[in-house]
């Protein structure tokens, strides 16, 4: 059933409102916080980059002081006046402490290890304190994640910001917020920065991929780790393409799930992962997901493999570096720019 015109107009209006909100936020960031492209490291917080406002607790505290002041004036209470001005002075002093808790902090982007799509990327930010004073009650946040930490005098902290990933390719850290409510929780001092940092996100491996494709053997016999008939190596979940001779019928007869026997062959042939050998009905992301799962499986079993994509061919190799290079090309397949950028 087709959606009604009023529903389409509602969705269209909601999308326009969100786009206007994103544009407004970007404009405010650029005008108020001077936020633009990624900043070169190190990023040092000067006086003009730190902003101070009361927290909800600070607003409630100010309202309570106002009520106390009105009551002291109404009843002519000298001690009431003294208490109000004392607490007011303490709250004003907390503004200075909150501001100084962020002043001259230095931020340097750290390493962000590649992850698979769906996992959490870990963006490491090195925060340095060059002052001879401890910096307590700090919070660093990005993409909805907030990490509390503190830094000792003339020390540094390696803060890891976990960020959820949803798509392959390069993921930038983007807008980062540093804030503190030290010392009383009445005042919030914060600043916004954009470190030049990104993380490579690999495609999500297919949960239950078919067996690794057969490759040419260098010696008579079967490849190591192939689905041969030599040495039994274990059971795995049954695939529709598996031969009935490899089904673990005894396990199935006992009421267990349908599993397939795996065998280890004799020699160490190479595997060729070719984009054109995949089924024609597989989409681009499904192909990348399957090839990612095959690369992970080949690396875990110590097998040599070659990779052929429509845009690049990678010679046979093995090991973590070879796998990382192949996964990098899969992550950046179809995106702008070369894979070695």
TrEMBL record:
<feature type="region of interest" description="Disordered">
    <location>
        <begin position="202"/>
        <end position="245"/>
    </location>
</feature>
<feature type="transmembrane region" description="Helical">
    <location>
        <begin position="79"/>
        <end position="99"/>
    </location>
</feature>
<keyword id="KW-0812">Transmembrane</keyword>
<protein>
    <submittedName>
        <fullName>DUF58 domain-containing protein</fullName>
    </submittedName>
</protein>
<keyword id="KW-1133">Transmembrane helix</keyword>
<feature type="compositionally biased region" description="Pro residues">
    <location>
        <begin position="204"/>
        <end position="214"/>
    </location>
</feature>
<feature type="transmembrane region" description="Helical">
    <location>
        <begin position="50"/>
        <end position="73"/>
    </location>
</feature>
<keyword id="KW-0472">Membrane</keyword>
């Amino acid at each position: 059933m087709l959606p009604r015109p009023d529903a389409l107009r509602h969705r269209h209006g909601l999308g326009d409102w969100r786009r206007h909100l994103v544009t407004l936020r970007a404009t405010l960031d650029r005008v108020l916080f001077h936020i633009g492209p990624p900043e070169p490291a190190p990023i040092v917080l000067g006086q003009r980059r730190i902003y101070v406002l009361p927290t909800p607790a600070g607003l409630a505290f100010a309202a309570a002081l106002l009520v106390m002041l009105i009551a002291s004036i109404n009843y002519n209470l000298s001690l009431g006046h003294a208490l109000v001005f004392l607490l007011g002075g303490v709250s004003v002093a907390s503004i200075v402490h909150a501001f100084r808790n962020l002043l001259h902090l230095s931020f340097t982007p750290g390493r962000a290890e590649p992850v698979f799509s769906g996992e959490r990327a870990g963006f490491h930010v090195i925060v340095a304190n060059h002052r001879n004073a401890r910096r307590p009650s700090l919070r660093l946040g990005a993409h909805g994640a907030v990490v509390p930490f503190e830094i000792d005098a003339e020390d540094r902290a390696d803060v890891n910001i976990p960020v959820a990933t949803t798509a392959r390719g390069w993921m930038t850290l983007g807008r980062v917020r540093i804030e503190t409510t030290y010392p009383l929780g009445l005042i919030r001092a914060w600043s916004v920065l954009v470190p030049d940092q990104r993380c490579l996100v690999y495609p999500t491996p297919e949960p239950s991929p078919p067996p690794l494709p057969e490759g040419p053997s260098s010696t008579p016999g079967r490849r190591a780790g192939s689905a041969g008939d030599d040495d039994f190596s274990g059971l795995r979940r049954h695939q529709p393409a598996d031969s009935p001779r490899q089904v673990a019928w005894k396990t199935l007869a006992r009421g267990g799930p349908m599993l397939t026997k795996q065998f280890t062959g004799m020699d160490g042939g190479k595997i060729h992962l070719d984009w054109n050998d995949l089924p024609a009905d597989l989409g681009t992301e499904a192909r990348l997901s399957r090839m990612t799962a095959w690369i992970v499986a080949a690396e875990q079993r110590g097998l040599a493999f070659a990779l052929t994509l429509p845009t690049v061919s990678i010679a046979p190799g093995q090991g973590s570096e070879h796998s990382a290079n192949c996964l990098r090309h899969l992550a950046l397949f179809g995106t702008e720019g070369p894979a070695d950028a």
